[in-house]
Write a structure and sequence with these properties.
The protein is mainly beta. Helices cover about 10% and strands about 45% of the residues. It is built from 1 helix and 12 strands; from the N terminus they run H-E-E-E-E-E-E-E-E-E-E-E-E.
């Protein structure tokens, strides 16, 4: 019972944070721009990444959208993690994933969707639950692919 309550609370929390805050993010790799999906929370079975920063200077890029301009930053050494509550780890955490839109293969009355409807911006939450944008609103249900939906193909995505 406690596990079910905790899981329900986790999914409710993820859904609350995810509601209409996901956005398409163009990312350029090797002069090719790909549309990815960014959302301001961690999702998945277990949080990752855990980053143990042992040095004060780290090397990165001015923007992950385009890797042309490198930047060196000074940070406080410590463990950086999406669930960390330590003051050195308070970051704006975003997940960036491949953009995955689905085409429904059958009616889904539980989410008020019909065969042929397009579910945009799939976000995996946890425990087999997904969040989809349907008719400009996010809706949560069990993950539908491959039984009830097929992916709409996009050009390959960058691997970084």
């Amino acid at each position: 019972m406690k596990i079910a309550l905790c899981l329900s609370l986790l999914i409710f929390t993820l859904t609350t944070y995810a509601d209409s805050e996901a956005y398409n993010l163009p990312i350029t790799r090797n002069q090719v721009t790909h549309e990815m999906l960014a959302y301001p929370f961690w999702s998945g079975e277990y949080p990752s990444p855990v980053i143990d920063v042992k040095t004060k200077k780290i090397h990165g890029y001015l923007s992950l959208r385009d890797l042309r301009e490198k930047k060196t930053c000074t940070v406080i050494p410590g463990v950086y993690h999406p669930w960390s509550e330590d003051k050195t780890s308070i970051l704006s955490f975003y997940s960036i994933t491949e953009k995955e839109d689905l085409l429904l293969l059958k009616d889904m009355p539980d989410i008020d969707a019909k065969k042929g409807d397009k579910l945009k911006n799939t976000i995996y939450l946890s425990e087999g639950m997904c969040l989809y944008e349907l008719k400009n609103q996010y809706t949560q249900t069990t993950c539908l692919y491959p039984e009830a939906a097929q992916p709409i193909e996009y050009p390959s995505h960058p691997s970084e």
